[in-house]
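Pilot study result, target chain (148 residues):
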Amino acid sequence: MFDGMIKQESRNPEFKKYTEQKIAGNKFMNYLGFVFSRIEAGFVEGTMDFLEIHEQQNGWLHGGVTSALLDIVQGFAAYTLVTAEQQVFTVEAKVSYFNPGTAKRFFVRGSVAKPGNRFHFCEGEVYYLKEDGVEVIVAKGSSTMVIV
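Predicted structure:
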């Protein structure tokens, strides 16, 4: 999904500053402990350390937290491509769970697969790294973001 990504053009020359302002206002993301590490036009990524509040009944990463992480990165990837007067909202989302989330730190990345004037079609992945550096995909998501 993320290899050989096409470089996106933002409608906002100050997209990084605008996206960072939107990120700062996201209280739920801060509650989860998710931190962005990279913001580019059409692409974002970040990390979240696994805490007890993120666990489901078997001690793995909760599916709702996984879904929220995907929504966060896909939404903010969409924000990187809009003007400073526009907002982005999720209108459709799909999550596919591949493996249990059993790590101390999770990595999340999101991108705009197809930008548009009214909608951006986005993709995301939640994964962790094994000791040998190999990625284990926990979940993949796709969403449609409306531009208002």
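One observation from the pilot: The mean pLDDT is 95. A full batch analysis is planned for the follow-on phase.
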